[in-house]
Specification:
The strands form 2 sheets. This protein has a 5-stranded parallel sheet, with helices on both faces. It is an alpha/beta fold. It is 54% helix and 10% strand. Helix 1 crosses helix 4, helix 5 packs parallel to helix 6 and helix 8 runs parallel beside helix 9.
Length: 323
């Protein structure tokens, strides 16, 4: 299992590749625009030449007033060139910022850092760091499972299963759209397998992430591994369990499928839920277990924490995988 430091190094390399991609994308857009309108190339070159020549001449000017006037003339001419470039871009049907860098995260400009020295990690970096530390590649991609791709037609109309899922989608989408200001702080999605609980959980995750907010999703088995690693405590650098406690929104899929290990599963699940409740953090859980089965498996203390400030969505119907 990679340490936090190793994940940070790997993620910083991803950010470096993203900045290179940003630069390549800009170069391609500049080349395309200048090919369609060569005057744009001349104006850009004129602005560069103007800046260089002005800086050289300023050094030889005898007075501060003369240097200030030369700088002002350069500024006015540069602004005129930029205005003409924007006009020509518009005439080509292109946005006015076509020749500017476009960042995945404008706040840190795809560096992963914000602020002056000492700089700190941007929230986009922290969000991706939390996600990569707890996902093992087995969870569905948000490109496939999201509210925009949600198709109610896959649910049978018989016994009200489609109308049930329509209401469930509405509740979950409302939760994701308003997080963290939600009616219920947490959600518990229960029901037999194949009813769409994991899909709904992934849709919530995708929407919250699309809104630029921080969330971590994890399978119950990966959660157990984090709890076991915390319990063994043979790596002082490991803080994966703490990061789950601190995630603004934690989404746990398939709770109840993880191993039951003495002094670990129940105890650490209680700690996780209890600490998150105390910090008023939100948790979304999908499970095949009923409320009674959850109580039997984890005991009264854990089940009470599962229900704390929690909206319960119980799904019923036919397993979609058998239709």
């Amino acid at each position: 299992m990679m340490t936090r430091s190793e994940h940070i190094r790997a993620l910083l390399e991803e950010y470096a590749r993203q900045r290179a991609a940003d630069d390549a994308d800009l170069a391609a857009r500049i080349e395309a625009a200048e090919r369609r309108d060569p005057e744009i190339a001349r104006l850009r070159a004129d602005s560069v030449s103007l800046a260089l020549n002005t800086m050289r001449s300023i050094l030889s000017l005898p007075t501060q007033e003369a240097r200030a006037e030369a700088a002002e003339q350069m500024k006015r001419r540069g602004q005129s060139n930029n205005a003409e470039i924007r006009r020509r871009l518009k005439a080509l049907g292109l946005p006015e910022d076509e020749l500017e860098l476009r960042y995945r995260c404008p706040r840190c400009r795809d560096t992963g850092y914000v602020g002056d020295a000492p700089a700190k990690f941007c929230e986009c970096f922290e969000t991706r760091l939390r996600a990569r530390r707890h996902e093992d590649g087995s969870m569905a991609g948000v490109e496939e499972q999201n509210f925009d791709a949600f198709d109610l037609n896959v649910f049978p109309e018989a016994d009200g299963q489609r109308s049930q899922m329509r209401a469930a989608r509405r509740l979950c989408e409302d939760y994701a759209n308003h997080f963290p200001e939600t009616r219920f702080r947490s959600l518990l999605l229960t029901g037999a397998g194949g009813l769409g609980k994991t899909y709904l959980l992934n849709c919530i995750y995708a929407r919250v992430m699309d809104r630029g907010l921080s969330a971590v999703r994890i399978t119950a088995f990966r959660l157990f591994e984090a709890m076991r690693q915390q319990h063994v405590g043979n790596d002082e650098r490991y803080d994966g369990f703490t990061s789950l406690i601190e995630a603004p929104l934690l989404l746990i899929d398939d709770l109840g499928t993880e191993p039951m290990m003495r002094n670990i599963t129940v105890e650490y699940l209680f700690t996780l839920l209890n600490e998150r409740i105390a910090a008023r953090r939100s948790t979304v859980i999908a499970t095949n277990l009923t409320l009674d089965q959850l109580k039997d498996r984890y005991g009264e203390r854990v089940s009470s924490r599962l229900m704390d400030h929690c909206g319960v969505l119980q799904l019923k119907g036919k397993d979609l995988r058998t239709l």
